[in-house]
Amino acid sequence: MPKFTITIQDTPEGVYIASDPPAEELQRLAAMGQLEGAAGYVVAVWAALLQLSQAAGTPHEPFHGEH
Fold first, then answer.
1. What is the tens place of the pLDDT at every residue in 21-60?
2. Residues 19-51, buried b or exposed e (16+ Cβ, 10 A)?
3. Where are the domains of the chain?
């Protein structure tokens, strides 16, 4: 099973939400039908978090490695 990391940080600028691999990569894999089972749920959760972040006007950026 692939490894996914979703990071949520409360910062002075707002809530920072990011993932590794980036949301664009997860969406591409999902569109190609390459995500099943738990991986599919991860994409659904990430999409929901990203929508909440955008609705709240908070920053969201690709996350690569540890901060």
1. 777 777 777 777 766 777 777 777 777 777 776 776 655 5
2. bbbebeebeebbeeeebeeebeebbeebeebbe
3. 5-56
**Residues written for the chain:** 67
SS (H, E, C) the chain: CCCCEEEEEEECCEEEEEEECCHHHHHHHHHCCCCCHHHHHHHHHHHHHHHHHHHHCCCECCCCCCC
User: Has this prediction a pTM greater than 0.70?
Assistant: no
Contact at 8 Å (CB) between 2 and 47? Answer: no
Report the C-alpha gap between 9 and 7 in whole angstroms.
6
